[in-house]
Design a protein that fits this description.
- The chain has 5 helices and no strands.
- The protein is mainly alpha-helical.
Length: about 150
Amino acid sequence: MIPSFQALFLIQFTATALMTGIIWFVQIVHYPLFGSIPAESFTRYEHSHTVRTGVVVAPLMLLELATAASLSLLRNPIAFTPTYLEALGCLTLIWASTFLIQVPLHGILEKRHDQAAIRRLVETNWIRTILWSVRLGLLVSILLQRAPEIFSR
């Protein structure tokens, strides 16, 4: 059975909201603290960080992507509105930033303590922080504008 448009939208909205909260925590608290980890234990810390963060973040990111793709495949009119397409564009850029910028920086940091890579990680993570925030705002806008349609059976 294929989940309804409403269920897919609400699951996507929830995943996006959770990821937005996580990315703000990472941006303001977690990544800046990387500079405080002693060099001699940094690579062990980075490896542990990557594994543990992946357990939390990967399922949410995949759920967000899968529900976004499913909504488009269901061809619901909401999925083709300018606001939804902008939100989808944000998601595309988030994934691009993650795999073209942040993942390679984490790869460097798993091999060695590198203050420049930490600084670049903090600086470039603003891309995802802003995009997830904008994306959530766009989905909130859709939710508010289309609440009767989204919450009706």
